[in-house]
Every structure is written in C-alpha cells, then in structure tokens.
Write a structure and sequence with these properties.
With about 200 residues, the protein is an alpha+beta fold. Helices cover about 40% and strands about 10% of the residues. The strands form two sheets. A three-stranded antiparallel β-sheet has the order 3-4-5. Strands 1-2 form a two-stranded antiparallel sheet. The chain starts with a strand and ends in a 16-residue tail after the last helix.
C-alpha cells in the first residue's frame, strides 16, 4: 500500500496518501494493542513523553485495568505519528471524528473499515478490527513475554492478588516497550517510512 486514488476512494491504488484516522487507525491498532475507541477519542495531550519514552496515556478506558500508559512503537514514530500529533491544531487528535449519541468516537470508522477491507480483498470470517489486538497478543506470547506483562500492556485485569494489587508499580514505559518493540507483525511498512 503506497496510496489511494482519492480521499473518498481508498480501495483504489493511486498517488494520494491522506494521513487521517483511516490511515492511522490500522497502524495504531497493529502496533499498540489499543482498542479502537481508546485511540478514537484521544486528545493531543494524551500523547506525551514519559521517562524518555513516547506514550499514549489511556485515562478513560473500558475498564479500570485499561487505564494505562501505552508506549508508542518505534515503527509508528518512523511512520510519522509524532509529526502527525504535533501538526494537529485541535484539542482532539482526530477532530474529524465526533461522538455518536452514546458518546463513542469510533463509530464512523467502525462502519467504514469492514467495507474497506472487503473492497481491497481482505475478507475472511472472523476477521475484524479487534483482530489487531489478537495478533499483538499472539506475537507477545510467541516471544515468551510473561502473561502478567501481557495483561498490563493490553489493559486486562490481573486476577492474581499479589501481582494484581501490589505488582507492576515499577514497570516503566521502557520495560513495557522492550517487551514488544522488536516484534514482527508480518507486515512490511518500509515503503511508508519517510526517508531522510
């Protein structure tokens, strides 16, 4: 994928490359294990540097365990995600998205994405946007990452009282990033990484 025909016809290859939510959401989903609503409602100030690591601060999550710092994968940085964040002149990171009647910011994207997938020929039973989370977790498991660390990265509650209540206090963003920065997701994005 190097571009599309025009902004409203992304299923057709071309030279136009609009870097809006439709461009970034699959990349963020693949590289951060965040839920689509978590990044759809982000504010620019939710992307910040913590202890030398750029992170996304999830403060309003589906669950209490989902409130977490998510380190930004180096490939997202290379793709220009931080440049995109710096370029947004609005409180919301995706000002083109507005909440639906239930307050969800991701609805328009979630309606568009399945149609887009079908149009470009990625249409398998059971394949949904949430599959990015499944892929990320599977890659962490294959890499031998401890299940408690996976739960912390993904934003799942740890049921073990010792680790769930007392553990994790000293797991820095760098430690979390080290757990996944070298994972191979099976997708070559070198052609999208800006050179120079």
């Amino acid at each position: 994928y190097t571009g599309h025909w025009r902004a409203d016809r992304r299923e057709r290859p071309g030279t136009v490359l609009v870097k809006d939510n439709k461009y970034w959401f699959p990349l963020i989903g693949l590289h951060t294990v965040m839920r689509v609503e978590e990044f759809a409602k982000l504010k620019v100030t939710d992307v910040r540097e913590v202890e030398g690591v750029w992170c996304i601060d999830i403060r309003d999550a589906k669950t209490k365990a989902g409130e977490r710092l998510v380190p930004i994968h180096p490939r997202l940085v290379a793709l220009g995600f931080l440049d995109h964040v710096r370029s947004v002149q609005h409180e919301r990171l995706w000002p083109e998205l507005t909440p639906n009647s239930e307050g969800a910011y991701s609805q328009r994207f979630c309606v568009w994405f399945p149609d887009f997938r079908r149009l470009i020929g990625i249409d398998r039973d059971g394949l949904v946007f949430h599959s990015f989370r499944h892929t990320f977790v599977s890659r962490l498991e294959e890499a031998g990452v401890d299940t408690k660390m996976i739960a912390r990265i993904v934003g799942h509650k740890i049921k073990d009282i010792t680790a769930g209540v007392y553990g994790g206090k000293f797991i820095t963003p760098q430690i979390r990033l080290n757990a996944f920065k070298d994972l191979d997701f099976g997708v070559d994005l070198e052609h999208l990484i800006r050179k120079g």
